[in-house]
Write a structure and sequence with these properties.
By secondary structure, the protein is mainly alpha-helical. The chain has a single domain, classed as Orthogonal Bundle (Helix Hairpins), CATH 1.10.287. It is 71% helix and 0% strand. The chain is built from three helices and no strands. This is NADH dehydrogenase subunit 4L. Keywords: Membrane, Mitochondrion, Transmembrane, Transmembrane helix.
Length: 98
Amino acid sequence: MGWTFPSLLASTAFFSGMLKFIMSLNSILCSLIVLEFMALAVFFLSVVITNSNLTDLHVSLVLLTIMVCDGVLGVSMMLLSTRVSGDQLLMNNSMLTW
């Protein structure tokens, strides 16, 4: 597989999302948004890779389903931690103990 423009764009989006995720670890909501952005970049890359083979497109749909479940679990964990601690910031490490 050669590097085409869409695959380079998806790879750049993923790595820029990874950099932003490392820089924004103090807020749960910002981290979840960046993780969903990275998941969309991986989904786009899988669609670009399997674009030549239309029979392998079901793998991208399974990946999209897993991404939706991941987003729902992340939001529910954020709501749980917000109800327990009162804010959505990760300034203290008490969230790592439960």
